Amino acid sequence: MTDWRQGFKGTDVNTESRVQNRKPRLLKMLVIVGLLLLCVIPLTVGLGVGLAKRHSHRSTPETPHDSEALGRPSLWAPQVGVSWQIVLSQSVKVDAGSTMITPNVDVYVLDLFDTKRETIDRLRRVGKNVVCYFSAGSWEDWREDASDYHTADLGNNLDGWAGERWVNVSAESVRSVMRNRIKLAAEKGCDGIDPDNVDGYENNNGLRLSSQDAVNFVKFLADEARKYNIATGLKNAGYIIHKVLDSVHFSVNEQCVEFSECKTFAPFIKAGKPVFHIEYPEGAPSVSSSERTQICSATGAATGTDKFSTVLKKMNLDGWVQYCTGQSVTTPTA
Ligand SMILES: *[C@@H]1O[C@H](CO)[C@@H](O)[C@H](O)[C@H]1NC(C)=O
């Protein structure tokens, strides 16, 4: 009781002093409100200008929560026969103010995580389209979002790829990671995505994955990307092409010549969609002209490659590339 009364008394005293101080306090308040307004008005105007800018330009929003402003103004639709380069094991180096990048091709496929938004901006400024690669069907233990997967959704190890496991492509934890990655692609200004390893059903995955699971997964990825007007590629997965061709915008194929199965991917060309085709000739970067000629011949093992966008690469997908013209170059990497 005593304590309470003392406390009350104390409060009373404070109230008195507050009353006495009312006038200066009011002044102080007015000064604070005035200062706040001074800060808020330019901020609001700045934000308005920023928003207007964001809508008039391609993308690159500052606020990741504003999903309406994220992404391209319209869907990217790559054409049959576009030229390209793919570099995944290193980060390509594009200097500020660069007017050119080597090689001077239409499309660059780069790693979603390892490529800075700044690099993508610079590439787009010199007229390139950028496709962002990530592994959709495998868990990679070194990625920043690796702990977002539920352990129950991870299957067998991938043969020959240390630190990677097949994932249950129907599971919510996996879908949620994919949504975040595609949003990241939009934030970084990617024009397309190249979701790898969607063909777990063809492998010893330990999760009883079916080709229908893959179809559903690819459609899910494409729908998600579509929200940002980002195009989606089908990586390999020849068996499900007829079921997803309408949903995806290009093919990324590895080694169809090596496996004599290029005809499988030709429906893309017929549908007006490019096939980004990679072969890994033994001995690259020293590829004999006879081997190159065979790969580029559209006959024999290469039957079905008409109008494919073919590149010869080393397995590690570094900056080196050779084209069917014989031209070989190395993209600068950091
Ligand atoms: C994969 O995820 C789906 C959806 O949650 C579930 O129905 C299925 O049982 C899972 N498969 C395995 C092998 O855990």
TrEMBL record:
It catalyses: Hydrolysis of terminal, non-reducing alpha-D-galactose residues in alpha-D-galactosides, including galactose oligosaccharides, galactomannans and galactolipids. The chain crosses the membrane at residues 26-52. Residues 83-320 form the Glycoside-hydrolase family GH114 TIM-barrel domain. Its EC number is 3.2.1.22. Keywords: Membrane, Transmembrane, Transmembrane helix. It holds the Pfam family Glyco_hydro_114. Gene3D superfamilies: Aldolase class I. It is an enzyme of class 3 (hydrolase). One of its GO terms (molecular function) is alpha-galactosidase activity. PANTHER family: ALPHA-1,4 POLYGALACTOSAMINIDASE, PUTATIVE (AFU_ORTHOLOGUE AFUA_3G07890)-RELATED, ALPHA-GALACTOSIDASE. This is alpha-galactosidase. It comes from Apiotrichum porosum. The lineage of its organism: Eukaryota, Fungi, Dikarya, Basidiomycota, Agaricomycotina.
